[in-house]
Design brief:
Largest sheet: 6 strands, antiparallel
Structural class: alpha+beta
CATH topology of one domain: Immunoglobulin-like
Mean pLDDT: 80
Number of strands: 13
CATH architecture of one domain: Sandwich
Low-confidence stretches: none
Length: about 250
Amino acid sequence: MAQQKSILKLKGTIGGITFYKSKDGYLAREKGGVDASRIANDPGFARTRENGAEFSNAASAGKLLRDAVRVLGKDASDGRVTARLTQVMAQIKNMDEANARGERHVGEGMAKDEAKALLNGFNFNENAVLGAVLYTPFSVDAATGEIKIVSLNPQNDISLPSGASHVVLKSGFASINFLTGESEMTVSAPVRIATNAAEQAVSLKPATAPAIEGTHFYLLSIDFVQSVNNADYSLNNNSYNVLAIVGIE
DNA sequence: GTCCAGATTCGATGATAGCA
DNA sequence: TGCTATCATCGAATCTGGAC
Protein backbone atom coordinates (compact mmCIF):
# COMPACT_ATOMS: atom_id res chain seq x y z
CA MET A 1 0.00 0.00 0.00
CA ALA A 2 1.43 3.37 -1.02
CA GLN A 3 2.01 5.84 1.80
CA GLN A 4 2.11 9.62 1.63
CA LYS A 5 5.47 10.99 2.77
CA SER A 6 4.81 14.54 1.69
CA ILE A 7 4.15 17.33 4.20
CA LEU A 8 0.83 17.78 2.36
CA LYS A 9 -1.73 15.35 3.82
CA LEU A 10 -4.10 14.92 0.89
CA LYS A 11 -7.68 13.63 1.05
CA GLY A 12 -9.80 12.95 -2.02
CA THR A 13 -9.09 11.75 -5.56
CA ILE A 14 -6.68 13.20 -8.08
CA GLY A 15 -6.16 11.58 -11.49
CA GLY A 16 -7.61 8.24 -10.45
CA ILE A 17 -5.47 8.04 -7.29
CA THR A 18 -7.41 8.23 -4.02
CA PHE A 19 -5.77 9.81 -0.99
CA TYR A 20 -7.23 9.10 2.43
CA LYS A 21 -6.37 8.79 6.12
CA SER A 22 -6.60 5.41 7.87
CA LYS A 23 -5.43 4.10 11.22
CA ASP A 24 -2.10 3.39 9.51
CA GLY A 25 -1.66 7.00 8.49
CA TYR A 26 -2.19 8.81 5.23
CA LEU A 27 -2.40 6.35 2.32
CA ALA A 28 -2.86 6.44 -1.44
CA ARG A 29 -4.33 3.84 -3.81
CA GLU A 30 -6.04 3.43 -7.17
CA LYS A 31 -9.76 4.07 -7.39
CA GLY A 32 -11.68 1.01 -6.27
CA GLY A 33 -15.31 0.43 -5.53
CA VAL A 34 -18.04 -1.59 -7.15
CA ASP A 35 -18.90 -1.81 -10.83
CA ALA A 36 -21.76 0.42 -12.03
CA SER A 37 -23.53 -2.45 -13.82
CA ARG A 38 -23.51 -4.48 -10.60
CA ILE A 39 -25.26 -1.70 -8.72
CA ALA A 40 -27.82 -1.57 -11.53
CA ASN A 41 -28.49 -5.32 -11.72
CA ASP A 42 -27.05 -7.30 -8.80
CA PRO A 43 -29.76 -8.49 -6.34
CA GLY A 44 -27.29 -7.74 -3.55
CA PHE A 45 -27.53 -4.07 -4.38
CA ALA A 46 -31.34 -3.91 -4.21
CA ARG A 47 -31.13 -1.71 -1.09
CA THR A 48 -28.76 0.65 -2.88
CA ARG A 49 -31.08 0.91 -5.90
CA GLU A 50 -34.07 1.56 -3.63
CA ASN A 51 -32.20 4.31 -1.90
CA GLY A 52 -31.18 5.78 -5.22
CA ALA A 53 -34.80 5.88 -6.35
CA GLU A 54 -35.88 7.61 -3.15
CA PHE A 55 -33.01 10.04 -3.33
CA SER A 56 -34.07 10.87 -6.88
CA ASN A 57 -37.55 11.68 -5.61
CA ALA A 58 -36.18 13.94 -2.86
CA ALA A 59 -33.94 15.86 -5.26
CA SER A 60 -36.82 16.30 -7.74
CA ALA A 61 -39.12 17.54 -4.97
CA GLY A 62 -36.49 20.10 -4.01
CA LYS A 63 -36.29 21.29 -7.61
CA LEU A 64 -40.09 21.53 -7.82
CA LEU A 65 -40.12 23.82 -4.78
CA ARG A 66 -37.20 25.93 -6.04
CA ASP A 67 -38.79 26.25 -9.49
CA ALA A 68 -42.12 27.23 -7.93
CA VAL A 69 -40.59 30.11 -5.94
CA ARG A 70 -37.95 31.07 -8.51
CA VAL A 71 -39.62 34.39 -9.29
CA LEU A 72 -38.87 35.42 -5.68
CA GLY A 73 -35.76 33.34 -5.09
CA LYS A 74 -33.60 34.17 -8.08
CA ASP A 75 -32.04 37.10 -6.20
CA ALA A 76 -31.94 35.45 -2.78
CA SER A 77 -30.19 32.10 -2.71
CA ASP A 78 -26.82 30.73 -1.67
CA GLY A 79 -24.64 28.21 -3.43
CA ARG A 80 -25.70 25.33 -1.22
CA VAL A 81 -29.46 25.80 -1.32
CA THR A 82 -29.92 22.78 -3.62
CA ALA A 83 -28.08 20.48 -1.22
CA ARG A 84 -29.79 21.88 1.88
CA LEU A 85 -33.24 21.55 0.34
CA THR A 86 -32.51 18.01 -0.88
CA GLN A 87 -31.49 17.14 2.68
CA VAL A 88 -34.82 18.39 4.09
CA MET A 89 -36.81 16.67 1.32
CA ALA A 90 -35.04 13.38 2.08
CA GLN A 91 -36.12 13.66 5.72
CA ILE A 92 -39.72 14.39 4.63
CA LYS A 93 -39.65 11.44 2.22
CA ASN A 94 -38.71 9.22 5.19
CA MET A 95 -41.99 10.23 6.86
CA ASP A 96 -43.98 8.39 4.15
CA GLU A 97 -45.50 5.40 5.99
CA ALA A 98 -47.81 4.37 3.14
CA ASN A 99 -45.29 3.13 0.58
CA ALA A 100 -42.69 0.37 0.64
CA ARG A 101 -38.97 0.99 0.82
CA GLY A 102 -37.72 2.36 -2.49
CA GLU A 103 -41.11 3.85 -3.29
CA ARG A 104 -41.45 6.36 -0.48
CA HIS A 105 -42.46 9.78 -1.78
CA VAL A 106 -42.09 13.37 -0.58
CA GLY A 107 -45.71 13.94 -1.57
CA GLU A 108 -46.88 11.37 0.99
CA GLY A 109 -44.55 12.54 3.73
CA MET A 110 -45.58 16.16 3.22
CA ALA A 111 -49.05 15.37 4.59
CA LYS A 112 -47.51 15.02 8.06
CA ASP A 113 -47.46 18.00 10.42
CA GLU A 114 -43.83 17.11 11.29
CA ALA A 115 -42.91 17.48 7.62
CA LYS A 116 -44.43 20.95 7.43
CA ALA A 117 -42.65 21.90 10.64
CA LEU A 118 -39.37 20.69 9.15
CA LEU A 119 -39.70 22.89 6.07
CA ASN A 120 -41.31 25.89 7.77
CA GLY A 121 -38.69 28.57 8.36
CA PHE A 122 -36.44 27.34 5.55
CA ASN A 123 -34.13 30.12 4.31
CA PHE A 124 -33.13 30.04 0.65
CA ASN A 125 -30.17 32.30 1.37
CA GLU A 126 -28.11 31.11 4.33
CA ASN A 127 -26.02 34.28 4.07
CA ALA A 128 -29.11 36.31 4.99
CA VAL A 129 -31.56 34.41 7.18
CA LEU A 130 -34.86 36.07 8.02
CA GLY A 131 -34.40 35.96 11.79
CA ALA A 132 -31.11 37.84 11.54
CA VAL A 133 -32.49 40.54 9.20
CA LEU A 134 -36.04 41.32 10.36
CA TYR A 135 -36.53 41.98 14.08
CA THR A 136 -40.22 42.86 14.21
CA PRO A 137 -43.12 40.37 14.36
CA PHE A 138 -45.46 39.74 11.44
CA SER A 139 -48.61 37.75 10.80
CA VAL A 140 -49.63 35.48 7.92
CA ASP A 141 -53.22 35.10 6.69
CA ALA A 142 -53.50 31.50 5.50
CA ALA A 143 -56.56 32.20 3.32
CA THR A 144 -55.17 35.14 1.35
CA GLY A 145 -51.42 34.80 1.82
CA GLU A 146 -51.28 38.35 3.17
CA ILE A 147 -48.30 39.13 5.41
CA LYS A 148 -48.82 42.06 7.79
CA ILE A 149 -46.24 44.01 9.77
CA VAL A 150 -48.04 46.26 12.21
CA SER A 151 -45.07 48.54 12.78
CA LEU A 152 -41.87 48.65 10.75
CA ASN A 153 -39.10 51.14 11.43
CA PRO A 154 -36.29 50.24 8.98
CA GLN A 155 -33.56 51.76 11.14
CA ASN A 156 -34.60 49.74 14.22
CA ASP A 157 -36.32 46.66 12.86
CA ILE A 158 -34.11 45.65 9.93
CA SER A 159 -30.42 44.80 9.78
CA LEU A 160 -29.49 47.18 6.98
CA PRO A 161 -26.39 46.44 4.89
CA SER A 162 -24.18 49.46 4.32
CA GLY A 163 -24.94 51.22 1.07
CA ALA A 164 -28.61 50.23 0.97
CA SER A 165 -30.92 53.16 0.31
CA HIS A 166 -34.16 51.19 0.06
CA VAL A 167 -35.60 47.87 1.20
CA VAL A 168 -38.12 46.03 -1.00
CA LEU A 169 -40.57 43.60 0.63
CA LYS A 170 -42.76 41.03 -1.17
CA SER A 171 -44.86 38.05 -0.17
CA GLY A 172 -45.43 34.86 -2.12
CA PHE A 173 -48.36 32.42 -1.90
CA ALA A 174 -47.45 29.09 -3.53
CA SER A 175 -49.41 25.87 -3.92
CA ILE A 176 -47.34 22.81 -4.77
CA ASN A 177 -48.57 19.28 -5.45
CA PHE A 178 -45.59 16.97 -4.95
CA LEU A 179 -47.55 13.96 -6.21
CA THR A 180 -48.46 15.45 -9.60
CA GLY A 181 -45.55 17.87 -9.98
CA GLU A 182 -47.85 20.86 -10.41
CA SER A 183 -47.16 24.22 -8.83
CA GLU A 184 -48.41 27.80 -8.92
CA MET A 185 -47.36 30.92 -7.06
CA THR A 186 -48.86 34.38 -6.80
CA VAL A 187 -46.80 37.33 -5.58
CA SER A 188 -47.77 40.57 -3.88
CA ALA A 189 -46.90 43.97 -5.28
CA PRO A 190 -43.48 45.06 -3.98
CA VAL A 191 -43.43 47.53 -1.08
CA ARG A 192 -40.37 49.79 -1.46
CA ILE A 193 -39.34 51.71 1.65
CA ALA A 194 -36.46 54.13 2.13
CA THR A 195 -34.06 52.90 4.82
CA ASN A 196 -34.45 56.24 6.65
CA ALA A 197 -38.25 56.24 6.42
CA ALA A 198 -40.48 56.73 9.47
CA GLU A 199 -42.25 53.88 11.27
CA GLN A 200 -45.14 52.49 9.21
CA ALA A 201 -47.47 49.52 8.76
CA VAL A 202 -46.78 47.11 5.89
CA SER A 203 -49.25 44.88 4.05
CA LEU A 204 -48.08 42.34 1.47
CA LYS A 205 -51.08 40.67 -0.15
CA PRO A 206 -50.93 38.56 -3.34
CA ALA A 207 -53.67 39.54 -5.81
CA THR A 208 -55.16 36.03 -5.86
CA ALA A 209 -54.71 32.67 -4.21
CA PRO A 210 -53.12 29.90 -6.34
CA ALA A 211 -55.76 27.75 -8.01
CA ILE A 212 -54.21 24.30 -8.00
CA GLU A 213 -54.63 21.86 -5.11
CA GLY A 214 -51.53 21.20 -3.08
CA THR A 215 -49.49 22.14 -0.03
CA HIS A 216 -49.68 25.89 0.57
CA PHE A 217 -46.41 27.76 1.14
CA TYR A 218 -46.22 31.35 2.41
CA LEU A 219 -42.98 33.19 1.65
CA LEU A 220 -41.45 36.51 2.64
CA SER A 221 -38.87 38.20 0.44
CA ILE A 222 -36.64 41.12 1.49
CA ASP A 223 -34.33 42.74 -1.08
CA PHE A 224 -31.87 45.57 -0.50
CA VAL A 225 -31.07 48.07 -3.24
CA GLN A 226 -29.14 51.27 -3.74
CA SER A 227 -31.07 53.89 -5.66
CA VAL A 228 -29.04 56.11 -8.00
CA ASN A 229 -30.81 58.59 -10.30
CA ASN A 230 -34.12 56.74 -9.89
CA ALA A 231 -32.58 53.38 -10.82
CA ASP A 232 -32.25 50.56 -8.26
CA TYR A 233 -29.00 48.58 -8.08
CA SER A 234 -28.55 45.29 -6.19
CA LEU A 235 -25.99 45.16 -3.39
CA ASN A 236 -22.97 42.83 -3.38
CA ASN A 237 -24.34 40.20 -5.77
CA ASN A 238 -27.63 39.91 -3.85
CA SER A 239 -25.89 38.29 -0.86
CA TYR A 240 -27.98 40.34 1.60
CA ASN A 241 -31.38 39.42 0.13
CA VAL A 242 -33.74 37.23 2.14
CA LEU A 243 -36.26 34.61 1.01
CA ALA A 244 -37.82 32.40 3.66
CA ILE A 245 -40.78 30.08 4.08
CA VAL A 246 -42.85 31.68 6.87
CA GLY A 247 -45.83 29.33 6.85
CA ILE A 248 -47.10 26.01 5.45
CA GLU A 249 -50.69 24.71 5.38
C1' DG B 1 0.86 37.01 -20.84
C1' DT B 2 -3.73 38.52 -19.90
C1' DC B 3 -8.51 38.72 -20.39
C1' DC B 4 -12.96 36.98 -21.47
C1' DA B 5 -16.60 33.78 -22.68
C1' DG B 6 -18.16 29.38 -22.92
C1' DA B 7 -17.67 24.60 -21.57
C1' DT B 8 -16.78 21.22 -18.25
C1' DT B 9 -16.19 19.33 -13.69
C1' DC B 10 -16.84 19.32 -8.76
C1' DG B 11 -19.23 19.05 -4.48
C1' DA B 12 -23.01 18.63 -1.45
C1' DT B 13 -27.21 16.10 -0.05
C1' DG B 14 -28.34 10.08 2.21
C1' DA B 15 -28.11 5.25 2.29
C1' DT B 16 -26.11 1.06 0.77
C1' DA B 17 -22.69 -3.21 -0.03
C1' DG B 18 -18.33 -4.51 -1.49
C1' DC B 19 -13.51 -3.76 -2.29
C1' DA B 20 -8.58 -2.56 -1.09
C1' DT C 1 -11.53 2.18 7.70
C1' DG C 2 -12.89 4.73 4.08
C1' DC C 3 -13.79 5.07 -0.73
C1' DT C 4 -16.77 3.79 -4.73
C1' DA C 5 -21.05 3.57 -7.47
C1' DT C 6 -26.19 4.86 -8.00
C1' DC C 7 -29.95 8.54 -8.05
C1' DA C 8 -31.04 14.73 -9.52
C1' DT C 9 -29.82 19.21 -9.16
C1' DC C 10 -27.24 23.52 -9.75
C1' DG C 11 -23.93 27.13 -8.15
C1' DA C 12 -19.10 27.45 -7.80
C1' DA C 13 -14.80 26.40 -9.40
C1' DT C 14 -11.84 25.15 -12.95
C1' DC C 15 -10.46 24.50 -17.63
C1' DT C 16 -10.08 25.66 -22.58
C1' DG C 17 -9.64 28.34 -26.59
C1' DG C 18 -9.52 32.59 -29.00
C1' DA C 19 -8.34 37.45 -29.32
C1' DC C 20 -5.29 41.04 -28.37
